[in-house]
Amino acid sequence: MTVLNTSLKFIISIVFDLVDLTLGRIPVFGTAFDVVGGLLGIWLWGTPGALQFLEIIDFTDQIDSFIPTLTIAGLISIIMDRD
Predict the structure, then answer these.
(1) 22, 48, 53, 56: which could form a disulfide with 38 (CB 3.0–4.6 Å)?
(2) Around Cβ 45, how many Cβ atoms within 10 Å?
(3) By residue range, what is the domain housing residue 7?
(4) Against a cut of 0.85, is the pTM above it?
C-alpha cells in the first residue's frame, strides 16, 4: 500500500467512527449503520475490517459507538502489512 492510499483509508475510518459516535447512537439506524460499517471495513481493510460487524452485538446502539472499531481495524491492518 502506498502511504497516500493508506492515509486516505485511515482518514475515512476516523471520520466514519466519529459519525458513528454521533449518528450511530440512534436505535435501529445505528444497527443499519453498523452493517454498512462492516462492509466498508472489509472494503477498506480486508479481514481486519470485519471487526466492525462485532458492533451489531450491541442492539441498543449506545455502547458500541464509543469504540472506534474501524480505526482499530485500520491500525491492525497497517501493523500487519508492515512486516
Answers:
(1) 53
(2) 26
(3) 3-81
(4) yes
Cell triple for residue 40?
Answer: 466498508
Number of domains in the chain: 1
- pLDDT at residue 49 is higher than 60: yes
- DSSP states of the chain as a string? --HHHHHHHHHHHHHHHHHHHHGGGSTTHHHHHHHHHHHHHHHHHSGGGGGGGGGGG-TTSSSGGGS-HHHHHHHHHHHHHT-
Please name the residue that has the C-alpha cell 481486519. 48
pLDDT tens track for 13-47: 999 999 999 998 888 889 999 999 999 999 999 99
Which three cell numbers mark 54?
Answer: 462485532
Closest CA to 19 of 77, 78, 70, 73: 70
Count of CB atoms situated within 10 Å of the CB of 6: 16
Question: What local confidence, expressed as pLDDT, does residue 15 receive?
Answer: 96
